[in-house]
Write a structure and sequence with these properties.
Blueprint lengths: L22 H15 L28 E6 L5 E3 L2 E3 L4 H11 L4 E6 L5 H14 L4 E3 L2 H5 L6
Parallel strand pairs: 1-4, 4-5
Antiparallel strand pairs: 1-2, 2-3
Length: about 150
């Protein structure tokens, strides 16, 4: 019995590899695209009249470790630029504090806000488990932090 011979030989053997020469270029272009299109949002400052203080200390924490709670002259509370009712403060702060135990909550309230409003905010922060709470003052805005 003779073997079957069709007369055709495989003259080219294709390799099973994907060409990767252009992948670095594509990755670089994607990196540039995301860098150009990313928007870094800054917190919007609320218009408030700062509380006066005789002495203060500048918060020496990284920006990611500070959560600003703004209270304007009308008693509106803003966290992450969203108007929050006072009874919802604990629900907003609790998950943020669970992610970052180094978190410092900076209350930035107008000087005309009644203490009862600040006390209600403090109780909500206590319920959220936030243990590091500070009060921003006019003097703190003037203090410069030494460069590291």
């Amino acid at each position: 019995m003779a073997g079957r011979d069709s007369g055709f030989d495989r003259s080219s053997e294709s390799e099973g590899e994907i060409p990767t020469a252009g992948l670095a270029d594509i990755a670089f272009l994607l990196l540039i695209f995301f860098m150009v299109t990313t928007v870094f949002r800054r917190d919007q400052k609320q218009e408030i009249r700062w509380v006066e203080a005789e002495a203060t200390k500048k918060i020496d924490e990284k920006r990611k470790n500070i959560l600003h709670v703004w209270v304007d002259v009308n008693g509106n509370i803003f966290i992450n630029d969203k108007n929050i009712p006072v009874d919802k403060v604990a629900g907003i702060v609790r998950p943020i504090y669970a992610e970052n135990r180094e978190l410092v909550v900076a209350i930035r309230a107008d000087q005309e806000i009644p203490y009862s409003k600040i006390d209600a905010i403090q109780k909500q922060l206590q319920a959220a488990g936030a243990v590091r709470v500070t009060f921003a003052t006019r003097l703190e805005q003037q203090v410069t932090r030494p460069r590291r």
